[in-house]
UniProtKB/TrEMBL annotation:
Residues 230-443 form the Histidine kinase domain. Its main location: membrane. It catalyses: ATP + protein L-histidine = ADP + protein N-phospho-L-histidine. It comes from Roseibium album. The keyword Protein transport does not apply. This is histidine kinase. Its EC number is 2.7.13.3. It comes from the Bacteria. The chain crosses the membrane at residues 38-57, 63-82, 103-127, 139-161, 173-195. It is found in: Cell membrane. Keywords: ATP-binding, Cell membrane, Kinase, Membrane, Nucleotide-binding, Phosphoprotein, Transferase, Transmembrane, Transmembrane helix. GO terms for molecular function: ATP binding; phosphorelay sensor kinase activity.
Length: 455
């Protein structure tokens, strides 16, 4: 919006396809308390298993070293709880070191209790699964390699599996090889599966965070309107006093006295300030329906205007069977439509058509371009975060960054206002993409929530 009386112009910030670089998203920073709790669970399970086998069943095993390894994990947990607060988030490197310790500790217990012949050998995967859901692929691969190396070592070197003293239990070599292959393949599959599922959740969280940032930035600009009104109210009294005193002093000086000219200048500037504050004060007035309400034609012009002069012809048409719909100045609608138009301009060859049609029940806004259209293989995925390719590469100098997070943000914002989106390719012989946004007319013309979007 522009405040011409005050000579102030607020520039609409561009919507990018990535979160702001100075925002730190903590999705890959595990809490210390999470790892400590998981390790306590492992300590309890390992202790119970050793007690059942050694005391309950009476099987022979190196009980001293085995319980010492369990105690080492318990003491590590106690040290971490004393040294650092539980709520602290670990760096990826620190979390990887702790998970690597868990793999080595579990490998040590398996070394003492039968190697891969131990039914609990598959617990070697647990730290890798934690890494796959909470850390980057780089550190997950490192832990996966460590677990594979440990499994390979345990397949060859290990103490006998605890068994009654009267019997000697040995696994056939081919069966041991099968267990190793099964463990490694399961480790790889489960790690990739868990990482992909967690990565999709992280991308969605990042995208929603970026959407919140976009809305917060727009609402911050809108809040300046209220601040301007408050400032106008507070400054009105001292400016009136200055104006009155200057008016009275104006008659105290003779003609030609430079002090009289100064007083006249002060009076004129005070009068100008009063006029500016009067206009600022009127911006948020409930009586100023021109500012509070926006017809469809003005909405389209506001959305299209920033993209004129880009080398692509933008044509706007409006057609309806009844009176033109008039809605509120909704930040979500302007940002959402603006981003759709921006993407159309980025991929168009020479022309973009933006049209609005309406009747007594529905308002539809269509955006068409003469570009390559949507790629068939991603047509069903458009609207998901980070889907970033049309029917070809993004044009040179593109500002939209492709159909990635920007389309997700636009879709999210518009759907929150009650709109429905249809994204398709134009029917032959025409080429290019067609995006249609439609609202129930009663929803678009609501008079509540001016320039606000609930999130």
């Amino acid at each position: 919006m522009a405040l011409s009386a005050a000579g102030i112009r607020f520039k609409k910030m561009p919507m990018t396809d990535q979160p702001a670089p100075n925002i730190t998203l903590p999705h890959r920073r595990l809490k210390l308390d999470t790892l400590v709790r998981l390790r306590w669970l492992a300590v309890g399970g390992q202790s119970a298993a050793l007690l059942v086998v050694y005391v309950g069943l009476g099987y022979s095993l190196p009980a001293g070293p085995a319980f010492a390894m369990v105690a080492m994990s318990a003491w590590l947990n106690i040290f971490l709880k004393i040294r650092w607060p539980s709520a602290m988030r670990l760096s990826e490197r620190a979390a990887t070191l702790q998970l690597a310790y868990d793999i080595l500790q579990m490998s040590g217990l398996l070394l003492l209790t039968g190697g891969l012949g131990n039914p609990f050998a598959f617990l070697l995967m647990a730290p890798v699964m934690v890494s796959a859901t909470g850390l980057s692929s780089r550190y997950t691969v490192v832990l996966g390699v460590l677990a594979t190396v440990c499994a390979s070592f345990l397949a060859v070197f290990h103490f006998p599996l605890p068994w009654p003293d009267s019997e000697d239990f040995r696994l056939p070599v081919i069966y041991s090889v099968g267990i190793w292959i099964a463990l490694v393949l399961t480790l790889g599959f489960m790690a990739v599966y868990a990482f992909r599922v967690a990565e999709e959740a992280r991308q969605l969280a990042d995208a929603l965070t970026a959407t919140e940032l976009v809305l917060a930035r727009e609402q911050h600009l809108n809040a300046l309107d209220g601040l301007a009104t408050a400032a106008a109210h507070e400054l009105g009294t001292p400016l009136a006093t200055i104006y009155l005193v200057a008016k009275e002093l104006n008659g105290e000086f003779e003609t030609g006295d430079h002090r009289g000219e100064d007083v006249a200048l002060i009076r004129s500037q005070a009068e100008r300030c009063r006029e500016i504050l009067k206009q600022l004060n009127s911006l948020s007035s409930e009586e100023d329906q021109t500012y509070q309400r926006m017809p469809v034609a003005q909405l389209l012009e506001d959305v299209i205007d920033p993209h004129r002069g880009t080398g692509v012809a933008i044509h706007s048409t409006q057609n309806g069977e009844s009176a033109e719909p008039v809605g509120t100045r909704n930040a979500a609608i302007r940002y959402g439509l603006g981003n759709l138009v921006e993407n159309a301009v980025d991929f168009a060859k020479s022309r973009v058509d933006v049209s609005a049609t309406w009747d007594d029940t529905t308002l539809s806004i269509s955006i068409r371009d003469d570009g390559p259209g949507f790629s068939v293989d991603i047509l069903g995925k458009i609207g998901d975060p980070y889907v970033s390719v049309r029917g070809g590469k993004s044009p040179q100098g593109s500002t939209g960054g492709g159909l990635g997070l920007g389309i997700f943000i636009a879709k999210t914002l518009l759907e929150r206002t009650g709109a429905k989106l249809l994204l398709e390719n134009q029917a032959p012989p025409d080429s290019g993409a067609h995006v249609r946004v439609s609202w129930p007319r009663s929803t678009f013309e609501r008079s509540v929530g001016v320039d606000e979007t609930s999130f």
